[in-house]
Every structure is written in structure tokens, then in C-alpha cells.
User: Fold these one by one.
Assistant:
Number 1:
Amino acid sequence: MAGRITGGKRDALLVRDCFRAGGYVFAKKAGDLARENGISRIARLASNENPYPPSPDAIRQGCDALREANRYPDECMEQLLQCLRETYGSYHFVSGVGMDGVIETLIRILVNPGDGVAIATPTFSFYGLAARAQSAEIHPLQRDEDYSVDPGVFINAAADAKISFLCSPNNPTGTVTPPEIIEEILAGIEGILFLDNAYIEFCDTDYLPLMNRHDNLVIGRTMSKAYALAGARVGYAFVPAWIVPFYQRASTPFTLNSASAQAAIGALKDREFMNRYVTHVRTWRERVARECGFPVTPSGANFIMVDVAPWTGDTMVRELAMRGILVRSCASFPGLPDHYIRVSIGDEWENELFLKEIQAIREANSGLSQ
Ligand code: PMP
């Protein structure tokens, strides 16, 4: 090929089609808008992060691990897995660079080009991005009007899928799917059900008893939300035992870096830190939903989805950004109308500011059609 590709055309010839469409949506542009308006203290409610720094134990253990960063970490992440067993019980676990890393590795283990991957929609975008990168055929299935999942519809879509994705509590709707529905789905499909529990700590539902009854269930978890370690990129999953050796072969060697793994151990052991934040989220989730003046979908997560009609999600994001508040428009989520925003529960001052400004926007425009 050398010498035959001229400048500017190399990407067209070399890059695979699946990477030509838009990728993951990051919450940066609205931040620029706020800064252009001279606002320096910005309420960051767009990415469902924990607004507080990690537990001091996580920070100390992560820093200590850096003292030995001249050495490769333990390739099995045995200390982290042991800590997960102590925390949750004697399940089989795998870890990855964020839950995103776990999802990508599982798809690489299971999916050949053209294989089916079912996704309950609207939902988190990375399942589709990772599956398309593996040349999978996506079978999206629409959630009901209240965003619940019909098990019959799910089973139909997942009939010949190697892996199917269901997020509970769901991003961006916050909807929690009852364990009985999950169990019905598990009994009706041959492939893996990946149950994404990124936000599980913020609701009362427990899916773990299902792990012992089904060997096609994977439950994905993250340290990015309740445990305040989004920047450390630590994800893990409860898996059936048969997957473990394949996962070890398919994942990049050492899966995690030693500082992140140790920070995760420190965070997992500090239950008090996590419980304090979860209580904060539950209290504010209820208040923000009640006082924002727009309809809100019931949420079991650290965010709420707000119906801002007659504004569109995009126009409301701009209005709020000009007032120093970053939220996420849901316009990029396939399967949702364009008049929703997703708002993370932040620190007290951020939640207060959001309530004050969204009420002001509504009052300033009452009677106007957007
Ligand atoms: N699943 C869901 C539903 C998410 O919202 C996110 C992150 N926003 C992830 C997975 C990825 O988590 P991580 O930071 O561990 O990659």
C-alpha cells in the first residue's frame, strides 16, 4: 500500500466503518459555554459522578501502591478479587478498566462478526458502540412507555443473541427492573444477560440471589459512582465460573493498574463513606424531583430524567449552561423523544443552584412556546 495513499485519504482507506459514526458523547461543550459566559464555578451535573473526593482510605492505599509502581501488578488482581469476595460473598469476579473495559472484553470473548447483540433501549450507549466495533448485529428492543421492560419482547429480541444488555437502574431513565422480570428473561434465553448495575447502590433492589441460579447471568458493577473513583477507572463483574478462564485470555494483561486496584480496595472497605453519599443522593433525588417543576421519571440512581417540554433537551442544556450548570441532554439516546435532560444529584450548592435556575427559566418563559 506504501506510496499509493495520498494525504487525507489514508483514514478513508484504513479505518473500519464502525468507527466513522459519532462515538461516546462526553459532557464538555456545555462547560465551554459556561466559561464563555464568564462563569468559573460550574455545577457539574452531567456525568453522574460522585461530587465528593474519594474515601481517605482509597487515596492512601492508591498513593502507597505508587511506591511500588516500578513492578508489574499481580496479573490476577487477586487482592481486589479477595476484597470483593469479603464484601459481597463467595462469587466469581472479573475486573476491568471501568465497567466499560469489562463490557468490551466480554463482547470480544463471545461475539463473532454478524452475531446478534440485543439491547433494551433507550439506554447507555457503550453497549452498542462496543458491539458494533466487533461487527455485531444489534437487535434494539424498545422499553415500554414507562420504560419498563417486557420480558417477552426482550426474549424475542435476544433469541439468537450471544449477549444481551439490560441496565438497571437504567441510564438515562433511572428505571429499576424487578428481579422477577430478570429471572423470567434468564430462563428464556440461551445467551448471556449482562445486567448493568452501575447505579445499584442507590436503590433497594438485590439481584445477587439470581447469580446462584443461572449460569448465563453477568452483573456489571463500577467503582465510578457510589465509590467516587471515576478517575481511577475500576469496574468489575459477577460472572459464572465458566467465563473466568476465557476472560483471563481475552483481557489485556494485568487488567488494572496497581494504584487503581489498591484505591478500589480502600474504597470498598470504607462502607461508611459510601453509605453517607447514598443517603445524600436519596434525600436530594426526592427533593430535586419534587421541586424542579417538570415531570420526572421515578429513579433508583444518582440522577433523574426530567421532561423539559416544551423546551428540547438541547435548548435546556444551553439555557442551564449559560447559568453555570452542566446537565446532559438526552437527545443523543436513541429511542427517546428530544425533550428530556438527565440531571445528576450533586453537592448541596449544585442542587440548590439547579433548582433556582430551572425555576427561573420556566418563569421567565411561561406562556412562551419554545
Ligand atoms: N454502565 C452505565 C449504565 C454507566 O452509566 C456507566 C458510566 N457512565 C458505565 C457503565 C461505565 O462505568 P465505568 O466508569 O466503570 O466505565
Number 2:
Amino acid sequence: MRKPMIAGNWKLHKTLKESCQLATELVQQLATIEDREVVIAPVFTSLAGVAGEIANSPVQLAAQNCYPAETGAFTGEVSPALLKDVGCQYIISGHSERRQLLNETNQFINQKVSATINAGLGAILCIGETLQERETHQMLEVLTNQIKEGLAGITAEQMADVVIAYEPVWAIGTGVTASDEQAQEAHAFIRGLLQGLYYQEVAEATRILYGGSVKPNNVDGLMAQSDIDGALVGGASLKAEDFIRIVRFE
Ligand code: PEP
């Protein structure tokens, strides 16, 4: 019942030309994909160009960030409505790099999730514990706060537009992946949180992606877990061959 999603977060990589080339390659190789959603998130300056390359293909577009205002005196920021205008279907919020480097709080991230949904787009809400939080047994508390505060005010109906990405910070860009069991355990816990916050149907319908050094050689084991509904892929999404293999998980 939950359609798998494989999303590529290109972070701060690739020029407009390189982004369009990679998008074109993905479109050529993934033209017939139907049973899973494929999403790519290039840098802002490549969004419009990439939107042109993936038009009329199954590949969808996401922004890596947004600002939670429609319009106004917010120099340097981009609203969900403008991201929709340029062709985005999703916006990522709460990525750990933004939480850590830019001190983004759960409250601010919640505003972005809300603004994303209100603009008619899908919100990909990233959560995850640091190594220190895991080792000091704070992981469940951290995930609980990130979910509760990140989804504050989001109704059960609006949850149809929300995808959660569980990304343990210690696994992002490190080459260290959570084991299949560690990831499944966290995902089951998150689904339980959703059941407590909403109700069973919402918990069962919400997709929870795993992120953190997902590669061609570990995606199959992760995707075999009952509560893992897809992947948010960083490094391995920058190479067509690797990303395509991840999309084609077995
Ligand atoms: C990410 O950027 O969300 C991510 C999971 O990166 P990587 O796959 O490189 O660990």
C-alpha cells in the first residue's frame, strides 16, 4: 500500500549543465518505472533547467529547502509557491546538515513543513539522532521530539502529503550505514509515534525513508525491512549508474 520512494539529494553539487546531463540520463534509464517514485533534488539554480529535462517522465523534482513565507522582505530566500511554480513536487525540510550548520530548530522546520503542504507540495521531513545522542541513550527522545515538534499542527488529512526520512546523523556521508536491523527498529519506532499522534491508518500509510550512506550494495537489505519504504540518497545519487541501481532495488 505504500509506494516506495527513492529520492536523491544532490546537496551543493553540480553546475546547471551537469545537473541537466544527470537528469537526462536518469530519464532515459528510468522512463518505464511505475511501481516506485523517483525524486531528485538539485541545487536551486538547477531546478528550472532540470524541470525541463524531466518533463513528461516519471522522475520528479524536489527542492532541498524553502523559506516558510509566501512573499515579502526575505532576502535570499525562496518560497514553496515559487518552488512549485518552477516544477517541484516535493520540498525537503529538516536535513541534519541544515539543523547542524544553520541551527535550524524543530519549530522552524515545522513552519516549513506546514508552508510546503499549504502550497500544495509534498513535504519530506528529515529526522535522526547524532552518534552522541545514540550512545547516551537519548535517541528515542530525540526522534520523539523531532516528530512531535516537526509535525505540530499537521492534520491527519495533511499527513497524506508528508514523507518522513529517518537519517541517523552518524551515517550521513560517512560510509557507515545503519544495519538493516538498526534501521528497521528506528522506523518501527517512528511508525509507532505516528500511530500515537494520529491513528493507525495514518501510521500505516505514511512512507518512512531511510537515509545514511545508502549504496547499490546495501539498498536491497534495507528495502527488505517491513517499515522501510524507500531511501534518501546523498553521495550515491550523484552518479547515474549507482542511483539507477538503487532505484532498481530488489
Ligand atoms: C543525505 O544527504 O541525506 C544522505 C543520506 O547522504 P549520504 O547518502 O551521502 O549518506
